[in-house]
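Hey forum,

I'm writing up a methods section and want to include a predicted complex as supplementary material. The small molecule is NAP. I've pasted the protein sequence and the SMILES. Can someone with a working setup run it? I'll credit the forum in the acknowledgements.
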Amino acid sequence: MTSQTITAAASGTFQLGDLTVNRVGFGAMRLPQHGEAFAADAVPRDRDQAVGVLRRAVELGVNHIDTAAFYFSPLRSANELINQALTPYQDDLVISTKVGPGRDPSGQWLPHASPEQLRGQVEENLRQLGRDHLDVVNLRIVGTDSIAERFGALAELRKAGLIRHLGLSNVRPHHLSEAQTIAPVVCVQNMYGVGASPEQKEFLRSCGEQHIAFVPFYSIAGTGREGGATTEDSAEVHAIARAHHLSPAQIRLAWTLHQGAHVLAIPGTGDPEHLAQNVATGALRLSADELTVLDSHS
Ligand SMILES: NC(=O)c1ccc[n+]([C@@H]2O[C@H](COP(=O)([O-])OP(=O)(O)OC[C@H]3O[C@@H](n4cnc5c(N)ncnc54)[C@H](OP(=O)(O)O)[C@@H]3O)[C@@H](O)[C@H]2O)c1
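Reply by user p_vandermeer:
Happy to help. Structure tokens for the complex are below, copy them as they are.
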């Protein structure tokens, strides 16, 4: 498999509402800085490199990009980089963003947005991306409390035409059920990867049954989280990687894509080589035996 020639189309497509995207997309959180996202001493990434990665992603067929207004380092903002790199936007490009968390201009985290503040966060994304509507907005939450008021506020903005489709992030099944009584939900974006718990696997499966896209984050980074791909991969992951002449990161990513046709990958990178590898992963087929080994991972 030559990673240079494989495009995101090899991963197949899935629907986000009425929008069709290739299953391998791109996460923009790594673009504003090197190393750990949100670090107080973050080193901003070279602008040309970040813009180049975004343009290369689209050239490679990526048409689903995940972002947020709170993805910024002292000198770079993911939304502003997307705007610079990709405008005028291709008709088939779907940009998903998320609201709820916020950071002040110095990067300090603010309390999660109230229903009233969500409109301002949606407008902030519109301004930064240079769009008149947002394709997909995820309500990103913490905790187990009711989301009815906050999701209701976003449903109003959808009715007003500022948002086309709504999703949820960092949620449990009862949040999805609650939101669905208010407005349609097209995607769930949760942390997910090799070693996922039975509950997480069941939630993923139930999203598929409802034709809701499941969008895993940290599927390469794993427990390294904001810090990046710092987790030591197991001997099994290494062995499967060696058998395919691929990297452990690609095996972790491929495993998520094998969890269902409704899984949309959004690997994050600022490295053009890693980008090409991640896109190429969409063409990889793991065997039943390999999946069994990876499934039994904890
Ligand atoms: N909803 C939420 O709460 C939430 C939370 C976190 C993230 N997200 C979204 O999910 C996206 C994915 O998460 P992520 O970017 O943290 O994690 P990820 O894709 O799981 O992993 C990214 C890390 O792995 C490295 N990497 C990427 N491709 C690689 C490859 N082929 N080989 C080796 N290393 C590779 C990256 O470093 P290099 O730059 O060196 O490649 C980076 O350190 C984010 O970009 C963001 O859009 C959402």
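Some notes you might quote in the supplement: The radius of gyration is 18 Å. The mean pLDDT is 95.
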